[in-house]
Prior knowledge:
The structure holds two protein chains of two kinds. Chain A is mostly helical. Helix content of chain A is 68%, strand content 4%. Chain A has one domain. Chain A contains seven helices and four strands; from the N terminus they run ββββααααααα. A two-stranded antiparallel sheet of chain A has the order 1-4. The longest helix of chain A is centred in the C-terminal third of the chain and has 37 residues. Chain A is globular, with a radius of gyration of 22 Å. Chain B has two domains: 45 residues, no CATH class; 84 residues.
Amino acid sequence: MAIEIQPLEQFKIERLIPIHIGGVDVSYTNAAFLMTVAVVLITALIMLGTRKRALVPDRWQSVAEMSYEFVADMVDTNVGHGGREFFPFVFTLFMFILFANFLGLVPYSYTVTSQIVVTFALAAVVFIGVTIIGIVRHGFHFLRLFVPQGVPAVLLLLLVPIELLSYCIRPFTLSIRLFANMLAGHTMLAIFGGFAASIGLLGIFPLGINILLVALEVLVAALQAYVFAILTCLYLSDAINLH
Amino acid sequence: MVRRAPAILPPVPVSMVALPRMSDSRPPDPLARLGEEIDKARAERVRREPVVSHRSVLQQGLGLGFRIGIELVVAIVVATGLGWAIDRWFGTRPWGMIVLFFLGVAAGMLNVYRAVTGISGPVGYRRGDQVSAGSKDRWDDEDC
C-alpha cells in the first residue's frame, strides 16, 4: 500500500476557534496558536532568566544573558551610536523569529515563518518604522539617502530611481528570504520523510538524509533569525547615521 | 560559543565554594578572587583558542551568503511586477515593464555589490569609510 505524500499539507492553516466579526474571518488558527506559544516561551525564558539575578548565572539566566548580549552586541556593532534605544525592538524581533523557526522544527507543530503574510508583516513593520524614524530624525534631509554624492547631475536621473527602487525592495527581500528558506526546508523534510515511509526497508537512506536535513534546518532557523535581525540593524543604521 | 561558555565557567564557582584557600597571596574577598579567576580563565581561553574569531568570520560569511542569494532575484521580480502594474494602470503597455526590468536589475546588482563590499567590516551595506566611522562610534560607547 502506497502512503500518500503531501509535502505541502503541513502549511495548511486550520481554524482552531472559528471567529467571524462583521464578515471578517479572524479565527484563532494553528498559526496563531504557534505564535502564542512562541511569545509565551520567550516571556517565560526571560522571566525565569532574570528572576534570580545571581552573579554566577544558572542555566536559565545564562541563556537569557547570552541572547541579550548577542543582540546587544549586534545592535552596537551595526547601528553604532544611538542604536541602544532600538534594542528592545530588535531583540523582540530576533527572539520571535528564532522561536517561531525552532518551534516549526518540532514534529506536528506549525512553522509560522513559512507564511509570507507573517514574514511580510514583520518586514513591513521594519520598513515603515525605519522610514518614519529616518524622516523624524532628519526631516526632508532624509531624501538624501536616495541621492549618491559626487555624481554628475545627468546621471542622477538614472541613479535616483535605482536607489529608490533598491530601497523599496527591502521589505520584499527581507520577507521572501525568511519565508522561502523556511518553506523550502520544510517541504524538503516532508518529501524525504515521505520517501522514507513509502519505500519500506530501503527507506533507511532517505531517513539518513532527513537527519542531516534536520541539522541543516536547525542551522537555517538560527541563521535566518540572525539575518533578519542584522538587516533590521543595518536599515536602522542607514536611517540614523545618514551620510 | 553557546556550547563553550558553560564548559569553562562552572569549575570556577565550584572551586570557589569547595576549596576556600586563604593562605596564599590571593585577595581574601571571594568576589575579587572570582573576578581574578574569571580573568585568568578568559585569558587562557583567548590564548588557547583563536578559533573564536574564525568562527565569527564563518558566521558572518554564512549570513552574507544566505542573504545575497535572493537579493538579485527578488529585485528583478518585484521591479518587473511593479512595471507590469504601472502598465495596467496607465495603459503604457510594454514600456513600464521594460524600463523597470532594467532598473530592477540595476537595483539588485547595487544591493549585492553593497552587501559584498561591506564584507570586511561588520556585515552590511556600508562602504569602507562609513564602516570605520561606525566602529569608532562603537568604541565611544561606555559599556562595550
